[in-house]
Design goal:
The chain has 2 helices and 5 strands; from the N terminus they run H-E-E-E-E-E-H. It is of the alpha+beta class. It has a domain at 34-77: Roll (Urease, subunit C, domain 1). A 3-stranded antiparallel beta sheet has the order 1-4-5. The chain has a two-stranded antiparallel ribbon with strand order 2-3. The longest helix has 16 residues, at 11-26.
Length: 77
């Protein structure tokens, strides 16, 4: 006697696989980024008298978008 193949032999397995796939893909949505490049722990000499030296900078679209301490730049991205 032949056994017939069922499309879903294990409904729980199908549910778990679908859930894992859904959770995995939910993180793939377009998320705006604060910077294309972040450089930290450096010694950056600026020409600004109020901030003569900085430790980090952020670059977005090929331009420097922020300069400051590592904490300030981390908070802005």
């Amino acid at each position: 006697m032949k056994k017939s193949m069922r499309v879903c032999s294990h409904p729980l397995k199908l549910f778990l696989m679908s859930t894992v796939l859904w959770i995995g893909l939910s993180g793939c949505a377009d998320q705006p980024t604060g910077a294309d490049l972040v450089l930290t722990n450096g010694k950056i000499i600026t020409v600004d008298e109020t901030l003569p030296e900085a430790a980090a900078l952020a670059v977005r679209d090929g331009r420097i978008s922020a300069v400051g301490s590592v904490e300030e730049i981390a908070a802005s991205i």
